[in-house]
Structures are given as structure tokens and as C-alpha cells.
Task: structure prediction
Amino acid sequence: MALLINDDNSPSLATAQASPKQPRHLDAGLAVLGIVAALLILMDIGGGFLAAFKLVVCLLLPGWVVLSRLPSADRASRLVWIVAASAVTYTAVAVVMAWTGLWFPRQVAAATVLASVGFIILRPGTYLPGSFVRGARQGGQPESDTGKREQRRRPRSMAMLPWWALALAAALWVIGLATAGTGRLGDFGLLAEFPLAWYVAVGLVVATCAWGLVARRTFSTLLMSVSVSSLVVMLYASAGLLAQVPRFPWTYKHMAVTNFITATGTVDPSIDIYNRWPGFFALSAFLGEVMGYRTALDYAAWAETGFALVDAVLVLAIARTISNRARMYWTATLVFTLANWVNQNYYSPQSYSYSLYLAMCLVAFTFLRGVPVSWMLRLETRIRLSRTVQRAKSGRSGAMPGIWEGNVPQRQILACVAILVLQAVIVVSHQLTPYLALLGLFPLLVSGYFRPRWLAPALVVLPLAYFIPNLAYVKGKYGLFSGFNIFGNIGYRPPRGDPLVLGTWVLTGHTLAHLAVVLTLLTGVLAVAGFVRRLLHGHVRTTLVVAWLAFAPALGLLAQSYGGEARFRVFLFALPWLSIGVAWLFWSGPVRTRRTVIGASATIVTMAMLFTVVHFQPEADYRVSQDDVSASQWLDANTKAGDIVFKTKYFFPLLVGPDYPHYLKWGSVTSLVDYFRQAKGKISVEGLRAYADRLRAADNNYVVITEEQKRQAVEEKLFEAQYLPELQRLLENGTGVENVFSNTTVRIYQFKSAP
Result:
């Protein structure tokens, strides 16, 4: 079937034609790649290019076996479905192995790949030509706003100009990263470290993307794909490439959980909540061993770019199910990329679950569209009639859109199975995502926009069935509800009454972070305007569905703050649908106009500027020192359960290794700030030893002192600036104290408890 819907109409599935058999050379090529990858996996040969090769083959072959047996599909959707099907399969297998303790990832992965090879050779599927060409749908119908294509081709020089711009941008980007500053980051983060070449490179790619959207003839699919992909990589990979180790201090615990599963081959629900929701961690440990890595530290840094690319393709595929206009779905993809400032693409279960949520929505929009119940039909009729009256008054007329056609039962059943499996994997991977998905999809299923309606209670049963056994743990550790104060759950704080000095406000880097609010409001306002314009053009059904999906995540603020992150989750889950609304604002009309060209171009450029500032300004808060990571690895390898580690309130030690459960016990990690307050300036090794004995008579006590801790103590006034240097001097010369670890910026001292 064709994925693309012509406004509110979708092509009839009855007209879908059977596709021819795949070319045999394609089968042979896939089989050879699978056999080679299986041998590399079994022999545990990996790292570098071979690791990437094995990962790609593992994520392609199982999904390809399934997708090659479905009817002709949109290429963007097919790509993400193949990867999602493989990832879900491996997640289910990895979770079962982690729960049972039967941990054999390489053997299972090799067997899966070889089984896929067998299916490809013995039972070849159908060739999937797809419809990924300039927004054309099945049957070759072009997008409506371009009319008849000019028969003459563009001059070769003009056709090659965007490619030359992209090539120049790539070269400048590499030069910019190579010459970027490497010193300690200040208030302006990477904004002050990037050279002019980097900004020119990003500007060229943004200009190329905008040009492709608003040109009289839209760029080819290949050119737009390369342009948008280049923009995603430049924006989401630059910071990671400049960092020596993975960014975001809070993601290191995720690596620790993965490393724990890798080392033990099992999960332990008594340790923490991550071991109770192990889907992502089990998958990561599984694929890590398949690639030849034994620690997540080796590959976690690429998660941000990888998830950003996958999510962009998912949004593109979803937008293509709603409209066959290339300008519309490429605009939606660009807006999603440039408005996603919340930094939730890092190595984490929520990033993985979010991608699976988008895959669920793609399946629903593709296969589960249905005719809504009678009361929703009456609401749609009222909206259409009100617009019809306005058109009559203004002397204009417009064609009424058709119904949102249903799908044949056989494919609907397969789609339901796919959605239930996706929901099940999300349920075992993340605590919040299943319920945010339900907020959007449950009402649409109940009201009949997606069918069958029985899928709604089924989607509810899965998370509840998994949550009930964990209810006591979650309630005791975190609580279930944080109240119905929506402003409190958003994390809103009233502005301080300090007088505003304009020059100071403009010239300090921290205030630039407030531009995130500007970017959020800009996206929301433009999206609402797009929804209204879409309705005014008579397209009611798709507008109601997309607008509801954009609004529904906000309902989560009525119950939970999710540790202060609820506002980020709300915007993230609303963003794909807001992006579609922004695209509708410019491309709902029947023709391309000067106003839409200027508006779309200005919006893309403005969002790119805002995103660049918001994304790269707070980099100092996201950076992690390589010295800190090395020291943390030493601690993980050398400390035992019951030892005490003293530190300041700085984010250290980083939970990074398989022995991280040692740090989770009360008193295992203790702040020096409390000791300094009790000592009241009388700092001594004997006093620290006595303080440690009062906490817990540990066999070994470790004191971590870093240069970053010293700077933080001064900046945040945690204690007197001279306390930490004085303690370090006393430890260097103290009796019974040993300097057990040292590098450029970190010192670790060990002393025994008093006899």
C-alpha cells in the first residue's frame, strides 16, 4: 500500500498491486553479509569498522525478513520498521536472558542472523520499490502545489550547486571541529569555542535545506535526505566529537547498569529501579558484546547522534502518511530537528522508548486509520459546516475532503500485534513512556480514529500488569503522584524581584538558556496557527488527530513532575505533532506563494539560530572530565562493599562500572561539605577519621579531591575556599594515609579506620 494520504484521503488498499520477486543478486548480497557478520560475531572479532558492520547487519536482517513479506511500502517507513523490528526482537531476547541468567548474546545474535540468511535464501520475499520520490504516491501522482513539472531539466551547474554547497559545508565543518577551542568552557559554552568555519558550515547546510523547501521545484529526495541528515549530524554530533568521553554526567549510571549486566549476565531488582525496567540496558549489553565491546563507555557517545537521526526519519515517515506534499513533510522534519532542544537523545532508556513510541504512531497512522464514532462525526460535521458558511459569505468554495479510509482486517491484525509488541518493549524499558503514549493513543482508539477499538484496553493492561508487582517499590522510593499543581509539576518558579540590568542580562551566558522558552513558544504558536489554517481549508479529521497528539502529553502534568523533568517530556512528546502543525501553516494552501516562501525560510533560519544557542551554550554543565572517568573506573575496580568515599557535592564519583551497587548503600558516598561544617575550620586527618568512624566503621576510607571540586567550592560558596587545599595538604603528609591514585586533576587518598 502507499503510505501517503492525499490530505484527508488515503489510497485504497484494494488497488495495491502485488510486487515482483526480489532480484536474486540482492538476496545473495544480503546472505553473504549475514554469513560474514555471523562469523565475526562468533569469533568475537570487532571494534572500529567491524563493530559498526556487525551492528548494521544485526539491525537489518531480522527486520528485512519480516518487511520483505509485506506489501509495497514507503521507503522511509520501511527503513525504520526494519530497524525497529530487529531492535524489538533483540530486546525481547536480551530481557529474557537477563531475567533467567542464561546470558549468551553472541551465540544468540549469530543464530538469529544465520536464521535470517536461511529465510532470505530459501523463501525470498517480494521486492519493495517504495514511493519515496518527490512526494509522489502510488500511481505516480505528484504533490499538488507544483502542478505539471517542467519538461526541461535544470542547467547542470544549477543542479550541482546545492551539492557543492554541501561538500563545502562538510569540509568547513571538519576544519571547524579540528580548530575549535579545547580549554575550560565558560558561561557561553561551545558558542565561544567554535571558529567561524563551523558557523559557516552550519549556515550553508541550513540555507541549502531552506532552499530545497521553498524552491519553485523542490529538491530531489536524495538531495533533501543528504541535506537534512548533514544538518542533524552537524548539530547533534559536534559537541560529542569535541568531548574526550561521553557527555552528560547523569548518563554514566546508565552505562554502569549496562556494564553490570555485561559482567554478571543477569539483573538484580533489589539494586535499583533500572534493574526492574531493564529493556534498554539488556539490549545495550547484548549489542555491545555482539560488536565486541565490554563496556558501554566505548560506544555510548554515539547515542545522541544515532537517536537524533532515527527520530528524524520517524517524523519524516509519519508526516508522509499525512500528506504527499514534499514541502510539508520535509518542513516538519526540519522543524522537529531544530526545535528539539531538550537534550533527551543521550544514552538512556527514555531515548530508546521515545523512538519506539514514534514507531507505534507510524504503524497506527499507516494501518489502523478508521471511521470515528458517531459523536465525533457530528463534531467534524459542525466544524465543516461552520467553515462552509464562512466560505459562502466570502464568495469562496472548496472541495470537501473525503473520509479517512479503513484498512483490510488481515493487515490490521498484524499492525495490532506490532503495536502491542512495541508497547510491551517500551513497558519493560521505561517507567513513564507507556503512559505518555496512552494519553495520546487511547482516546483516538476509543473514538474510532484508529481501529480496532479493543486495542485501547489492551495497551492499558500491559503497563499496569508490569507496574503492579513494582508498585510497592516505586511508591516507597519515589511516590506515585506529586500533586495536581500543574505549575509545580512543570517546575515553574516565579521571577526574582532583583532589579534587571539590561547589559548584564544580555551579556551573561546563563541568560541565553532562556532562549529555550522562546524556541518552545515559537514552535507552539506557529503550530496552533497551522492547525487553525488547516481547519479553515476544510481538512478536519487529520487536524483533530494531530492536534490531539500535540496536546495530550500536557495532561501528564496533572499527576507527576517526574523529578522535575516532566516539562521536558511534555514538549518532547508534543514536538513531532507541533512540527507537522508548523508545516501546515506554510503548505496548507493549494499553491506556493511569496508569503509562504518568506515565512518558511525565516522560520527555519530563526529556529536554527535559536537551537544553536540553546544547545551549545550550557555545554560546561554537560562536559565530563576524562580524568574523572579514569578515577571513577579505578574506584569501581578497587573499592568493596562497605567502604566510604568522601567527595564534595560535585558530580563525583561517576557510576560507571559493574560494581556501581556499592555506591548505592547509605553512607557509601559521603559529602565533605558536611564534615567541613562540623569541623568549623578545625580540619585534620584525625578529625576526618573520627567523623568516618561515627558514620560507619569501614575497612577503607577514600577521599577524592579534584580541581573541579575546588573551583565549584569557590563558585557556589559551598565552604571556605581554603578548606579543600588545606585538607589535601594534610592528607599528603598524614600518618596512615596513602595517595592511591593520581592523574592530572584528580587525587584519591586512602586511610584505614581507627583501630
Summary: The two ends are 78 Å apart (CA to CA). The beta strands are 644-647, 669-671, 700-706, 737-742, 746-752. The CA atoms of residues 706 and 746 lie 4 Å apart.
